Every structure is written in structure tokens, then in C-alpha cells.
């Protein structure tokens, strides 16, 4: 089962209701949901043991962050099947990174964005400890060429590195990384001019531009949220201020859905090609 919430006044009570009603939840997307805190995310971690994908785009009101490091730590400690995690605007500590590396042995895709708690030391920890990692996205974080060098020396299974708005990273450091890891695809945003010094890399950049143009023309595209939900995946998407209605109707809708459980067998490969990892 996959559930998406965007710009919803959901709250911890809503997350708790989901945790008790959806123990088979495998993918959860929270994009700017208000009144959700570490307590609500901890409820998900405690009861949704099959969780494989977690995307959080934290929404800040009056300078107070809604979901923080403690909530992610609870996920790391209890969601051993986690394969993909995207954190935007969520602080993350070495303690939480260590829990992810130790307990989530199937974690292959990770994005850490818009946080000043991810520096060179934390990126070096990721490089040393996240051995199964295949795709890594770093956006708007205070990392430098030291962090990039650590990635080049670690993450042995990494096939794609995406770097955006990290001003401490130089073209020279990216060049050295490419020389050291020739099979690693490195994607750099247009705001950070980097030299693509081979035809294959230029071709990769052109393909990326074509994919972006294709998505811009797709009316079903929703940014970070997946745009290609499989027919075998149960989806619940809420994009309006309807949390109270959701709360009152959620269990009834879920009860009806169980009658078609045979039709909702989950595809073993939740999309690996979400926009943030392309």
C-alpha cells in the first residue's frame, strides 16, 4: 500500500490512525503536511513494519520544524525493510545515520536536502557505512570537496550521485571524482557550472534535459511524488485541507479496500525512477 499527502493539515492523530489501520503500508509520502511531528512518525515506525519508501518534505511554521531527527531515528530503528528515504528540510544526526546504516541493510536510495546538519563529516560517514547505497542525492547542504572525496573513496555500490546547490563543491572535485569512479554517473545542477569532459557525460546531460522537458509537459507530474503509480499498488492521495474528513472516513475506505485485497498485490519493485534520483 502506498499513501501520499501533500499540503494537508494531517497532524499526529492522522498519522497514528494510519499506523493502526495500515500495518501493511509500504510507501509513505509527506509533503508539507502541517501539525505532524516526531510523535506521529514514531507511530508509523512502531506499527508499519513493511515500510520500504519514506519521503518527507518538512513544512516549517513560525520557525518550528514539524518533523525532525528523532522521528527519522525511530524509522531507522524499526523499519528494517527500508529501501528508499528522501528527507527535505529535515535535520539528521550521525546517530540517526548510524541507525539507518546498521538497521536498514536494504537501503539503496537516499536523498538529503535543504539541511545544514549534513556537512563533510556526515557525508564521510555515509560514504563509509552505507555500503548497499546505489543512488545518492545531496541538495543545498554545506558539503565541500572533502565530502565528495569521501564519497569517491567509499560507497562501493554507488552508481548515481546527484549534487544540487552545494556551493562548497568545485568543478575540480567533481572532475577528480569522475577520474576515480569512471562508472559513476554524476549529475550536477545547472546552477553549479561543471565541465562534462566526455561525450558519454554530455549525452547523459542531454538525456536528462529531455526527461525534464517530457515531465514538464506531463499534466500528471507532481514534483517529487511519483507520477507512474502501478495498477497493482493501492494509492491514497490527499491534496486539500481535508484531514478531518479523512480521519472519519479512513477506516471505512480501508475496510472496503480489503475486500479487493487479491487485486492489490503489491509489485515487488516500487518505482526506482522517482524524479529526485533521475
TrEMBL record:
<dbReference type="GO" id="GO:0019005">
    <property type="term" value="C:SCF ubiquitin ligase complex"/>
</dbReference>
<dbReference type="InterPro" id="IPR032675">
    <property type="entry name" value="LRR_dom_sf"/>
</dbReference>
<dbReference type="InterPro" id="IPR006553">
    <property type="entry name" value="Leu-rich_rpt_Cys-con_subtyp"/>
</dbReference>
<dbReference type="GO" id="GO:0031146">
    <property type="term" value="P:SCF-dependent proteasomal ubiquitin-dependent protein catabolic process"/>
</dbReference>
<feature type="domain" description="F-box/LRR-repeat protein 15-like leucin rich repeat">
    <location>
        <begin position="10"/>
        <end position="178"/>
    </location>
</feature>
<feature type="region of interest" description="Disordered">
    <location>
        <begin position="257"/>
        <end position="278"/>
    </location>
</feature>
<dbReference type="InterPro" id="IPR057207">
    <property type="entry name" value="FBXL15_LRR"/>
</dbReference>
<feature type="region of interest" description="Disordered">
    <location>
        <begin position="195"/>
        <end position="229"/>
    </location>
</feature>
<protein>
    <recommendedName>
        <fullName>F-box/LRR-repeat protein 15-like leucin rich repeat domain-containing protein</fullName>
    </recommendedName>
</protein>
<dbReference type="Pfam" id="PF25372">
    <property type="entry name" value="DUF7885"/>
</dbReference>
<feature type="compositionally biased region" description="Basic and acidic residues">
    <location>
        <begin position="204"/>
        <end position="219"/>
    </location>
</feature>
Amino acid at each position: 500500500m502506498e499513501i501520499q499527502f501533500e499540503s494537508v493539515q494531517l497532524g499526529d492523530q492522522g498519522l497514528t490512525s494510519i499506523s493502526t489501520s495500515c500495518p501493511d503500508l509500504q510507501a509513505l509520502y509527506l509533503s508539507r503536511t502541517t501539525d505532524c511531528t516526531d510523535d506521529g512518525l514514531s507511530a508509523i515506525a512502531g506499527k508499519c513494519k513493511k515500510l520500504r519508501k519514506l519521503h518527507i518534505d518538512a513544512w516549517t511554521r513560525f520557525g518550528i520544524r514539524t518533523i525532525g531527527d528523532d522521528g527519522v531515528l525511530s524509522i531507522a530503528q524499526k523499519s528494517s525493510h527500508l529501501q528508499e528515504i528522501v528527507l527535505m528540510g529535515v535535520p539528521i544526526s550521525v546517530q540517526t545515520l548510524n541507525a539507518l546504516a546498521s538497521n536498514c541493510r536494504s537501503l539503496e536510495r537516499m536523498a538529503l536536502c535543504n539541511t545544514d546538519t549534513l556537512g563533510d563529516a556526515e557525508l564521510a560517514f555515509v560514504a563509509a557505512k552505507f555500503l548497499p547505497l546505489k543512488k545518492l542525492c545531496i541538495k543545498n547542504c554545506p558539503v565541500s570537496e572533502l565530502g565528495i572525496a569521501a564519497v569517491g573513496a567509499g560507497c562501493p555500490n554507488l552508481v548515481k550521485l546527484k549534487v544540487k546547490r552545494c556551493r562548497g563543491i568545485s568543478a575540480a572535485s567533481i572532475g577528480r571524482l569522475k577520474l576515480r569512479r569512471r562508472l559513476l554517473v554524476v549529475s550536477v545542477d545547472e546552477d553549479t557550472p561543471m565541465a562534462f569532459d566526455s561525450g558519454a557525460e554530455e549525452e547523459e546531460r542531454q538525456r536528462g534535459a529531455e526527461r525534464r522537458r517530457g515531465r514538464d509537459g506531463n499534466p500528471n507530474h507532481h514534483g517529487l511524488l511519483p507520477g507512474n503509480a502501478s495498477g497493482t499498488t493501492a494509492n491514497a492521495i490527499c491534496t486539500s485541507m481535508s484531514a478531518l474528513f479523512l480521519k472519519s472516513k479512513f477506516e471505512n475506505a480501508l475496510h472496503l479496500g480489503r475486500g479487493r485485497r487479491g487485486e492489490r498485490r503489491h509489485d515487488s519493485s516500487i518505482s526506482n525512477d522517482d524524479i529526485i534520483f533521475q
